[in-house]
């Protein structure tokens, strides 16, 4: 299941005049090649490499836990899991390119599971405890709900997880190790695709007739804008509104991603770090006209505010959504919506582009 249908890379010149006294719209096309190169070499490729390497450490930690189920090895496995959540969440914002081919994204992260179907599948597989389901190959051939981070979170934190320290090489642990190995392998496939010199990295760095992705600079920039907008919408729609839609709604804390491991806000923080890294390291502000610096400053300030706020929220989502804490979430909702507007409307208009999007939440 995809969070969204694949990003449609479309381009439309701003069709209406900007407000009086607003900066003149116009893309700085001379800056595009350098921006695309930095996006690929300084953000996307290292991001996937970090996620794959973290998954490799997680696989090792899970195998150690299975061989020697002590509180120490369990703590190390959980720490490695937290580490993988962080590195995956940073690069998770890039939901275009190789990661959306062959459902690779869903193999790593199946979320949201609105009706609990995936959870039931994980519980049923653990209850059945078939030794055949303890290899990477076996897991890779099953439902996406059984082979990614949310499945592994249940192994480590869900009902019955005490078995991890009472049963040496028990089924639950071996299944978890296989899931970790599958995440490592899937991430490795994405890394391999981006590392191929004449593959997607060359296509992204050199828009034009020779590119398989972008026929010109404007399409390439629209793709980067799409990553930012969709990523910001993920933070709002899939990370926050999935369980809290505002003060007049009933919170659903157990719909929050990674609520069992208390990684909800850590993941959201990493999502925001990934977006800011793309914005800053790629130098996307360089694409703005010279008189549009206030737009870049406003986006920087919004990122700074969000990244200062989110890590301070209570990691226990039940507590975070209590009446006493809801004002903080209301402020977060407002700030996340503001970020989307600044990127999509203000920045997009200033560079003379509008991002064309087609996405669905799976309903």
TrEMBL record:
Assigned GO CC terms: cell envelope
Keyword Signal: yes
Keyword Signal: yes
Localization: Cell envelope
Keyword tags: Signal
Imelysin-like domain sequence ranges: 44-341
Organism classification: Bacteria, Pseudomonadati, Pseudomonadota, Alphaproteobacteria, Hyphomicrobiales
Source organism (scientific name): Rhizobium grahamii
Chief subcellular location: other
Protein name according to UniProt: Imelysin-like domain-containing protein
Top-level lineage group: Bacteria
Alphabetized Pfam families for the sequence: Peptidase_M75
Signal peptide positions (record): 1-19
């Amino acid at each position: 299941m995809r969070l969204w249908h694949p990003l449609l890379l479309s381009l439309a010149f701003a069709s209406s005049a900007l407000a009086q006294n607003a900066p003149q719209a116009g893309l700085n096309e001379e800056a595009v090649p350098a921006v695309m190169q930095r996006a690929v070499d300084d953000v996307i490729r290292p991001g996937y490499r970090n996620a794959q390497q973290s998954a490799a450490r997680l696989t090792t930690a899970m195998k150690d836990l299975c061989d020697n189920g002590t509180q120490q090895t369990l703590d190390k496995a959980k720490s490695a899991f937290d580490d993988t959540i962080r590195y995956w969440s940073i690069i998770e914002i890039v939901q275009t390119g190789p990661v959306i081919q062959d459902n690779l994204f869903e193999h790593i992260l199946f979320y949201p599971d609105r009706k609990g179907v995936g959870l039931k599948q994980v519980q049923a597989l653990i209850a059945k405890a078939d030794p055949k389901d303890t290899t990477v190959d076996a897991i890779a051939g099953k439902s996406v709900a059984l082979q990614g981070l949310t499945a592994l979170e249940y192994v480590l934190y869900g009902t019955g997880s005490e078995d991890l320290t009472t049963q040496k090489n028990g089924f639950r642990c071996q299944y978890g190790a296989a899931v970790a190995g599958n995440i490592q392998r899937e991430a490795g496939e994405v890394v391999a695709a981006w590392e191929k010199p004449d593959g997607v990295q060359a296509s992204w760095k050199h828009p034009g007739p020779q590119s398989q992705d972008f026929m010109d600079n404007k399409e390439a920039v629209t793709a980067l804008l799409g990553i930012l907008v969709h990523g910001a919408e993920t933070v709002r729609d899939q990370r926050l509104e999935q369980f809290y839609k505002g003060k007049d709604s009933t919170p659903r804390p157990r719909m929050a991603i990674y609520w069992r491991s208390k990684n909800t806000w850590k993941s959201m923080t990493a999502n925001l770090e990934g977006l800011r890294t793309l914005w800053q390291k790629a130098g996307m502000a360089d694409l703005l006209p010279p008189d549009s610096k206030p737009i870049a400053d406003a986006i920087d300030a919004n990122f700074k505010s969000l990244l200062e706020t989110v890590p301070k929220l209570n990691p226990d989502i039940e507590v975070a959504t209590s009446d006493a804490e809801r004002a903080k979430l209301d402020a977060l909702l407002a700030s996340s919506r503001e970020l989307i507007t600044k990127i999509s409307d203000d920045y997009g208009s200033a560079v003379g582009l509008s991002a064309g999007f087609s996405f669905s939440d799976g309903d």
